Write a sequence for this structure.
């Protein structure tokens, strides 16, 4: 599922306009991005949590040339799946699939 499919699903589930759905989804994503950028942690019970992890600089290697390069320190978002979501995905995976396709 991509962002536009999520917007469409919201339209259908709540019988609201595409424009309203777009505004809602953008508001949620923008708010989450702002929170992570300011160092906050986001927890959605049953789904998972988002946090920012700090990575130190290190010496890497250019895969094309083999040349050593210094990789600068960085902060990246990290997602940890929640127990309920993990179990839901695992149960769906364990169900037999129709192999006629």
């Amino acid at each position: 599922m991509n962002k536009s499919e999520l917007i469409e699903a919201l339209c259908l589930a709540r019988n609201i306009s595409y424009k309203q759905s777009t505004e809602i989804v953008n508001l949620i994503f923008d708010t989450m991005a702002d929170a992570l950028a300011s160092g906050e942690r986001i927890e959605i019970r049953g789904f998972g949590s988002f946090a920012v992890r700090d990575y130190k600089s290190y010496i890497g290697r250019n895969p094309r040339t083999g040349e050593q390069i210094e990789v600068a320190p960085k902060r990246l978002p990290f997602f940890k799946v929640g127990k309920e979501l993990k179990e839901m995905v695992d149960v769906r995976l364990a169900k037999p699939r129709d192999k006629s396709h």
Summary: The CA atoms of residues 63 and 69 lie 10 Å apart. The chain has two domains: 1-39, 41-95. The chain has a mean pLDDT of 92.
